[in-house]
């Protein structure tokens, strides 16, 4: 499919900043949910951890339809005045923020148990499977149309990751200070009504960020008009995507990556509250994990350009795997030693996260080289579904594992037993360590887009587009 530049101002810092704000807005609700939603369900609503795991699995089954459906929708609808993807950010920014707030209504704790379960399922699926999908698929797909230049598109991945890190920094550093209180015996519990307040504040911040993304970004590359485009049936498209080795490999890596990172975020609440008895340290963990990654951000694009995204990414996740497996083996009792090794792991995975979105653009290019059809929205939707599946696996593992080790869910103050606390430590270190090791192996052995291959694909597409531009 030929691509044609639109008559727009040149790509520049405004677009990068706008794209940063897009993920900043996304992650105000996404990271808050990944880090605190299970805690809200178990310690405020009093729902069993196992049932929370069931919720996440069911929601991902729904996502299998909504994610791909949204991808096909943005690929097949004719562009509006603002472009093919950008207008969706304006349309959905308020609904996704409201849907997020609905998940954290503290007064639902007084409802009958069946009512709380129904409320949990309805609000989570409405937020994640409908509203978040409707804004995240167009936002992610938009990176490939802001510029046709591979270097400029790679820089968008770095800026997107910085946006995510800023949201993570705010959520990780500020939320624990406002959410927890210390009991007379020194243990820490949550303040239920503050979940709702925090969700409202983060929702407002998300809307502001989305509006900045819409205002600062411009689409410059458009697909050939529908009358010239080669139409594909869904069956032929599914077959083409299944045969895309780069896509299947990056999906496998995404599943393991999200399992590791989101499980770590979700378990940190329990690890620092129940194992280290230091929930107030979560704010320091937020700074320790994000600030070094922000320092690496200016060098991420340069390193990936020099050594290749696959090659540099392997090193990053390899460092993270080693750090978490070492934490598991040492069985640390010192919270400071734990934070130190977590910092090392965070730097490794943080670097990988800064380049992962550029992987997806390379996969889209690879799809076009193989089939002649670009399918930006559909390819991104399939990857987004994989990320959500990773999120579900993380949430499911958190819920199921807590239930398996005997964690007691309660709306009151409960001191967990020593075996439960030891189990929390094992889950928090061994599972992420093995998952990051899996990402390393998938990239090394299965992902085909080396630096050389990416450059070859870019040359093929430049030649094709040049030929298309010369046709009458």
UniProtKB/TrEMBL annotation:
UniProt keyword list: Membrane, Transmembrane, Transmembrane helix
Keyword hit for Transmembrane helix: yes
One annotated GO molecular function: symporter activity
TM segment ranges: 39-62, 88-107, 119-141, 162-183, 195-217, 237-261, 281-300, 312-330, 336-360, 392-412, 424-447
Pfam families: MFS_2
One Gene Ontology term, aspect cellular component: plasma membrane
Listed SUPFAM superfamilies: MFS general substrate transporter (SSF103473)
An annotated GO BP: carbohydrate transport
UniProt cross-references to NCBIfam families, sorted A to Z: gph
Name of the protein in its database record: Major facilitator transporter
Source species: Ruthenibacterium lactatiformans
């Amino acid at each position: 499919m030929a691509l044609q530049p639109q008559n727009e101002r040149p790509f520049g810092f405004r677009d990068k900043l706008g794209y940063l704000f897009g993920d900043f807005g996304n992650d105000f609700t996404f990271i808050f949910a990944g880090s605190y939603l299970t805690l809200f369900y178990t310690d405020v609503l009093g729902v069993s951890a196992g049932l929370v795991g069931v919720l996440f699995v069911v929601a991902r089954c729904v996502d299998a339809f909504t994610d791909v459906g949204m991808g096909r929708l943005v690929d097949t609808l004719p562009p509006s005045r603002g472009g093919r993807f950008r207008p969706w950010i304006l349309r959905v920014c308020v609904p996704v923020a409201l849907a997020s707030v609905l998940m954290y209504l503290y007064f639902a704790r007084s409802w009958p148990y069946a009512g709380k379960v129904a409320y949990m399922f309805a609000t989570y699926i409405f937020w994640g499977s409908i509203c978040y999908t409707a804004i995240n698929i167009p936002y992610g797909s938009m990176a490939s149309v802001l510029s046709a230049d591979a270097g400029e598109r790679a820089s968008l991945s770095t800026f997107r990751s910085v946006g995510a890190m800023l949201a993570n920094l705010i959520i990780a550093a500020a939320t624990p200070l406002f959410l927890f209180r210390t009991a007379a015996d020194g243990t820490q519990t949550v303040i239920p009504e503050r979940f709702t307040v925090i969700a409202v504040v983060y929702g407002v911040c998300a809307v502001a960020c989305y509006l900045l993304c819409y205002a600062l970004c411009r689409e410059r590359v458009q697909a050939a008009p529908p009358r010239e485009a080669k139409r594909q049936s869904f069956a032929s498209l599914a077959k083409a995507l299944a045969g895309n080795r780069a896509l299947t490999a990056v999906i496998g890596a995404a599943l393991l990556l999200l399992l590791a990172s989101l499980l770590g975020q979700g378990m940190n609440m329990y690890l620092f509250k129940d194992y280290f008895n230091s929930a107030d340290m979560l704010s320091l963990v937020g700074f320790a994990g994000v600030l070094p990654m922000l320092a690496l951000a200016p060098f991420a694009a340069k390193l990936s350009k020099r050594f290749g995204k696959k090659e540099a990414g392997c090193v990053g996740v390899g460092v993270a795997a080693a750090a978490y497996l070492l934490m598991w083996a040492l069985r640390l009792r010192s919270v400071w030693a734990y934070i130190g090794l977590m910092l090392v792991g965070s730097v490794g995975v943080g670097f990988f996260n800064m380049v992962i979105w550029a992987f997806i653009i390379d996969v889209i290019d690879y799809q076009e080289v193989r089939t002649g059809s670009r399918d930006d929205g559909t390819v991104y939707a399939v990857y987004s579904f994989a990320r959500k599946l990773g999120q579900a696996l993380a949430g499911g593992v958190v819920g199921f594992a807590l239930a398996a080790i005997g964690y007691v869910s309660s709306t009151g103050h409960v001191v967990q037993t020593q075996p439960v606390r030891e189990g929390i430590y094992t889950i928090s270190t061994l599972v992420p360590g093995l998952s990051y090791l899996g990402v390393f192996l998938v990239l090394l052995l299965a992902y085909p887009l080396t630096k050389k291959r990416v450059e070859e694909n870019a040359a093929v597409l430049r030649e094709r587009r040049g030929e298309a531009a010369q046709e009458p």
